[in-house]
Design goal:
The protein is mainly alpha-helical and 86 residues long. It is built from 3 helices and no strands.
């Protein structure tokens, strides 16, 4: 095989490997690089999860305020304990 043909084949192979390795760069974070993921950065994901924890904590605290601590189920008490430790 002539050297130019070999160089072209190696370049093509390099391009294929490059796109296979770096195909998820620049896309939204998450598993599989899905562009359907609603989080665009790790900060967005962290903030969304933090807001969800705060909302859940507020819901539990509101229930305690209205009905008392004894109105919480075992799982709600365990979750309240988990949320207040973070």
């Amino acid at each position: 095989m002539n050297p130019i043909g070999l160089i072209l084949i190696l370049c093509a192979l390099f391009v294929v490997v490059y796109f296979l390795v770096f195909r998820n760069r620049g896309t939204s974070i998450g598993f599989g690089g899905s562009s359907n993921n609603k989080y665009t950065t790790l900060d967005d994901r962290y903030n969304a999860e933090k807001k969800a924890r705060e909302d859940e904590l507020n819901r539990l605290l509101e229930k305690i305020h209205k009905k008392g601590i004894d109105s919480l189920s075992k799982s709600e008490k365990a979750r309240l304990d988990e949320l207040t430790k973070k």
